[in-house]
Amino acid sequence: MEQEIFEQAVQTSWGVFTLIASEKGLRELRFSKLARRYTKKQLLNNDVHTPKKVQQVFTQTKRWLRTYLAGKPYPFDKIPIDSSSHTTMQARMLNRLARIPWGETQSYAWLAAACGIPKGFRAMGQLLKSNPLPILFPCHRVIRQDGSIGGFSQGIQWKKRLIAHESR
Question: What is the pTM of this model?
Fold first, then answer.
C-alpha cells in the first residue's frame, strides 16, 4: 500500500511555503511550485482527511518556520522527519548539515570530509541539490572553498537572503 502524502501551504512574512508530510513526519519544504509532484492518490489537501499526526507535524513546522524567519534560532528537533526516501549518504549529509550553527558557513569540501568522503565535494553538491528540507537542513550554509556562494536548489537569491538573514 502506498503511503499517503499531505500538503499544506504556509503564509509567512517571506511569502508562501508548502509543507509535504506523511504520518511518519515532514518530507519536504517547498519554496515554490517547482518541486516534485505527487499523484492525486498520494496527495490529499483537505484538512478533514488529514490525520491528527500529520496536522501536528504541520503545526510544529509552521511554528518553527515563522520563528526562524523572524530571525530567531529555533531547534527543529521536535518536528518528526519522514526519512523513508533518504539514501544512507543523504541521511548522513542531512545529519551533518543540521549541526552547522546559525550564521556560520562551511565549504562543500568540509562537508564531504565530515561525511567521510574527503574528495567528494562534487557529490555533496549533487546531494545538496536534492535536499528535500532546505532551511531545516541548512544547505544554504554550504559555500565554495574560495568563499563564493555556490549553488542552491531554490535559487541563488534565496541562498543569499538566508545567509544574510542569519548573519544579522
Answer: 0.86
